[in-house]
Amino acid sequence: MKIAETVMQLLKPVIEGLGYELAEVSYKKEQGNMMLELYIDKEDGVTIEDCEKVSRAVDPILDEKDPIPDSYFMAVYSLGIDRPLRTDKDLGRNIGEMVTVKLYAPLNEKKEYVGKLASFDESSITLDCDGSEVKIGRKDASSIKLYLDFNTLQTEE
After folding, report:
1. Rounded to an integer, what distance in angstroms lies between the CA atom of residue 127 and that of residue 138?
2. N or C: lower Cβ tally within 10 Å for the chain?
3. Per-residue DSSP letters for 26-78?
4. Spatial separation of the C-alpha atoms in residues 53 and 3, rounded to whole Å
5. Kindly report the CA angle at 80 between 77 and 84, in degrees rounded to 5?
6. Residues β-bridged to residue 129
7. CA-wise closest residue to 27 among 40, 36, 19
């Protein structure tokens, strides 16, 4: 079993017990050091304090169980607003939201669609693009992300 999978199994119940979802675990070499990255989420968003709380809770568990033979650095992150929507849980949580879907190859001469996520199943997603329904195979999508419209973002003065 890969280290990331082992860590996911070990920490998922602990992190869920704190009220968060452990969405992703990554273990990779970065700038010459091994990095264990935990990506968490919760319904109303993740703050830096949430990341710190999770880090403090899992650090002693990782020390005790020692699932990683090498020395490493650990970081806990929010998934972020521009994260890819990969899982059924990600998609289900965003039904009715505007998304951007980028394709590996053109569909109807387009490689990118923006529309409201109407539905999905194991093999496809359906977008409402200005009243027109577009069905896209999940295997054909290189990425699915929430649509960010920077023109409508407000800043405080």
Report:
1. 12
2. C
3. EEEEETTEEEEEEEEE-TT---HHHHHHHHHHHHHHHHHH---SS--EEEEEE
4. 22
5. 115
6. 132
7. 36
